[in-house]
């Protein structure tokens, strides 16, 4: 999905995650949602439209990404949704002062293996502060060699695979986009592993 007026591109993983958010929209009013690496922010925008209290974030080192978050909010009549800079792997004042969250969203954040540990460090920090929260994430399978299993174990996190057909995202065309059908996209929910190892 490309909006030429604003030069903003919506990645296929964002469309799939937004579909999951929409599918669970009735559970979102009053829940606090943080989208990390938000970019154009489609999943976060959908969560806000469903009644969630949303905060959008992207790297504080990438002002263009933060601007895209703000543009998306304005285009969708959500001028009051806060946009903050959070850089993965960095415990910043913005991260430390973040209000409690129930759901963390991240679409296609597992893009480059060199960032995987920084992402999970940030997720672990957020989940430790919010033990009942969940990280809803979609990712594109780019290499059979890439895995976060060892990192999840290291950071005492667990993941549950969510089949795309369970929320109607296994179609060739999704949200007027033919993109998801041409990519192998997976969805999982990451949460804290309990002390008994489950």
Structure commentary:
Interacts with HSPA5, HSP90B1, TUBULIN, UGGT1 and UGGT2. Interacts with TET3. Interacts with STPG4. It holds the Pfam family Methyltransf_16. By secondary structure, the protein is of the alpha/beta class. The protein has one domain (12-136, 148-192): Rossmann fold (3-Layer(aba) Sandwich), CATH 3.40.50. It is 29% helix and 21% strand. It has helices at residues 12-23, 42-49, 63-75, 93-96, 116-129, 149-154; strands at residues 2-3, 8-9, 32-35, 53-58, 83-85, 103-107, 134-140, 157-161, 185-192. Strand 4 (53-58), helix 3 (63-75) and strand 5 (83-85) form a beta-alpha-beta unit. The chain is globular and about 40 Å long.
Write the layout of secondary structure elements.
Layout: E1 2-3, E2 8-9, H1 12-23, E3 32-35, H2 42-49, E4 53-58, H3 63-75, E5 83-85, H4 93-96, E6 103-107, H5 116-129, E7 134-140, H6 149-154, E8 157-161, E9 185-192
Parallel strand pairs: 3-4, 3-6, 4-5, 6-7
Antiparallel strand pairs: 1-2, 7-9, 8-9
Defining traits:
198 residues; disordered N terminus; Rossmann fold; alpha/beta; two-stranded antiparallel ribbon
Radius of gyration (CA) equals 16 Å
- Give the uncertain stretches in residue-range form: 1-6
Question: CATH homologous superfamily - what is it?
Answer: Vaccinia Virus protein VP39
- What is the terminal separation in angstroms? 38 Å
- The quaternary structure here is single chain
Order of helices and strands: EEHEHEHEHEHEHEE
Overall form: globular
């Amino acid at each position: 999905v490309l909006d030429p007026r604003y030069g903003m591109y919506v990645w296929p993983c964002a469309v799939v995650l937004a579909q999951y958010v929409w599918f669970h929209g009735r559970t979102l009013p009053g829940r606090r949602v943080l989208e990390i690496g938000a970019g154009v922010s489609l999943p976060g925008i959908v969560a806000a439209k469903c009644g969630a209290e949303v905060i959008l974030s992207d790297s504080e080192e990438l002002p263009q990404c933060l601007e895209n978050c703000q543009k998306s909010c304005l285009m969708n009549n959500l001028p009051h949704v806060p946009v903050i800079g959070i850089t993965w792997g960095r415990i910043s004042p913005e991260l430390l002062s973040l209000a409690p969250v129930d759901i963390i969203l991240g679409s296609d954040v597992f893009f480059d293996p060199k960032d995987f540990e920084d992402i999970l460090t940030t997720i672990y920090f957020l989940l430790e502060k919010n033990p009942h929260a969940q990280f809803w994430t979609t990712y594109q399978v780019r290499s059979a060699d890439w895995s976060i299993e060892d990192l999840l174990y290291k950071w005492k996190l667990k993941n549950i695979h969510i089949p795309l057909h369970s929320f109607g995202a296994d179609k060739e065309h999704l949200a007027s986009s033919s993109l998801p059908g041409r990519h192998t996209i997976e969805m999982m929910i990451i949460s804290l592993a309990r002390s008994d190892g489950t």
